[in-house]
Amino acid sequence: MFFLITLGILGGVYWRFIQKIGVTRRIILFRMTIFSKNKAITSGSPLPPPPFLTDSGTFSFPKKVPPGTLIRISSSIAMVLLNQALKNSFEQQFPETQVIVNTQASDESIDLLLKGSIDIAAISRHLTSHEESQGLTALLIDKNVLAMVIGAQNYFRDELKEAQVVDIFQGKIINWLISKRSPGATQVINHPSASSTRHIFEQLILKGRNCSNTPNITTTTQETTTSVLQNLGTDGISHETYLQIKNPQAVRAVPTDYHTLEVPKYPYRRSFYYVYRKPSSEAVKIFLGYVFSPMGEKIISDIQ
Question: What is the pLDDT of residue 202?
Answer without folding.
Answer: 83
